[in-house]
Request: fold
Amino acid sequence: MGLGSHTRDVEGHDTNLASRYIAILLVAGQQFEVPRSRLEKFCPSLASSLDQSPRIIELDHNIDDWTSFLWYTELDPEAILEVKKSSDSEAKCRRLVGAAVINFLYENDEDARWLLNWAYEMLETDARTWTPGADLLVALTRAVPDMHDGPDEYGVTLHGRSRDIWCDALADPTTDPIALVAALDDSPLLLALAYFYTLRLSDDIIAGDSRLTGLDRRRLMLGMWSLREEGILRSAPWPEPCRRSPQPYIRQGDIYLVDRWGRCHLKKYYPPRPWQPRVDPRVGDGFSNDYNLWARFSTGPWSLED
Reply:
């Protein structure tokens, strides 16, 4: 099995690529003396998990997989050349981002930025090259110093490219949203990605699928809260599917928000015409993108409204 292979965790869930990366990072943190400050900056839950005998997804020990991931600790020129020659776009992007992760964890920010720029350049051509890793890419982009504060050499902000990759992932009709939900661990980024996917489903589909539990739904909403608090969604447009058909958490004129304690709150929302973006002065908070509901309702405390 390779890093992208599907396996089963102890609960019988099909684990996805991003979950396997998190497991590998945990292993790397234990075996390669990664500075704890870097683990905490990249993902606090990873650092805390190291203190609690974490349940790590059982990984295969294929030497080729491990060397392809760890090669870049010292940026082996021959490994870089092999990536350039590779015709497998997904494998190429996976290795680039994995290399960036390793360099970031070892406090080599310059090379991490260079590798991320390269990954974004490749994704500029095909943004769906590596949609399972979009969450990891977003997290790393935000963690590496100077990556999300200005334009890169290709004329677009890296934060903006992350946003576009998210949107392309959401638009992929081949993704099974419920299967993605079932594969999640406690990463807020993974939770939020799956929550976005669930917005494409009807109440009947969600209620009738035994793989999605009430706890899953609550965890997804908590993930959305985490993303909004971190500011990741402030520049992201609301997914188009939400405006096309009935959704489980949004209706014309109404939106249900769930706070960090799992309590539901009803807010009025009247979406603008797509060609007439505006900020409703009743709820606007200075953001011009009217589709970003989470940024629009960023001020609290929330309360139930008619």
